[in-house]
Amino acid sequence: MSARVHTNPSNRAKARETVEKKVVFKPVLDSPFRVPWPSVPFNVQNTALACTISLLDGVSEYNSVRGLENRKRKALQRESKQNKKRKLDAETVVATSSEDVVLPECPAVVPHLIVGINEVTKRLDVQIRSLRKIVAVDGEQPNTPPPPIKLIVVCRADVDPQILIDHLPHEVAAFNSSKPPDPIKMVPLPKGSESALAKAIGVRRAAVIAMDANTPGLVAFSSILDSVPTITAPWLTSLAASTTRNLIPTHVKQLRTTAPKDMKVAKQLRADGKAAAKARKKEKMAKVVVVA
């Protein structure tokens, strides 16, 4: 994985800075709570993309016709509100719109798909909370959780900035660390997958797609899921479940930054600046005393 380069200017950088600087690399310790993305070969990524597009067959046409029907229904509703003489109620509007547009049969895979970064994140949060022991009050029926997520495909190479999806490995690891019988698998897709998936679904963007365990046709991914590593967080695993305590190896990062070429000159300029600021402050205070 290539190193991330931050090119944003520093918040403390001054507009007028005359000190010449050079590029230096500063070693820093990485966080031990880092959850890396799964390392998946490119051939597996391409196979996962092909299986996903095949699974989404017919979804684009369904969403296109449904969107057309919704737009027409809303247009008729606006028209009925503007023209009160026609006195069209909501039922007449819906009936008229349904006569003009025939909605095709909903593909069986649609109810089992979760599309979008926010929607997948919310569903993962619900799935993680379902691991807790629910204490039901007398007379209160606990909510039935939705089917658990089985597979998540992420167009990681197409998301910019990637901080939008950096939380997904941590969410998946939080669930998998509880050692469920059916852990979640996450597969990053090759570059250019987002446009292909968006076209297959009939939306503008589809950076993340999750599929629950009851998704029809999920068997097509069985041949590749064995080669996809399961993401876990060792520090979330209970001590009772693990007999040995494994230490994460130290990971040192090289932080690319800048430093003055001549440190002696830089220190002198900084001292002169402090002295000048102190003199200006003293002069300002003297003027205030004289006026008073």
Short description:
This protein is an alpha+beta fold. The chain is 39% helix and 12% strand.
What would your notes on this structure say?
The protein has helices at 42-55, 59-82, 90-100, 117-129, 168-176, 193-201, 222-225, 263-291, and strands at residues 21-29, 113-115, 149-154, 185-188, 208-212, 252-260. The chain has a four-stranded mixed sheet with strand order 2-5-3-4, with helices on both faces. Strands 1-6 form a two-stranded antiparallel sheet. The protein contains eight helices and six strands; from the N terminus they run E-H-H-H-E-H-E-H-E-H-E-H-E-H. It folds into three domains: 21-31 and 257-291; 32-57 and 108-237 and 248-256, Ribosomal protein L30/S12 (60s Ribosomal Protein L30, Chain: A, 2-Layer Sandwich); 59-106. With 292 residues, the protein is an alpha+beta fold. Helix 4 (117-129) runs parallel beside helix 5 (168-176). The chain is extended. Residues 93-98 have low confidence and may be disordered. The longest helix has 29 residues, at 263-291. One of its GO terms (biological process) is rRNA processing. One of its GO terms (molecular function) is ribonuclease P activity. One of its GO terms (cellular component) is cytosol. InterPro entries: Ribosomal_eL30-like_sf (IPR029064), RNase_P_Pop3 (IPR013241).
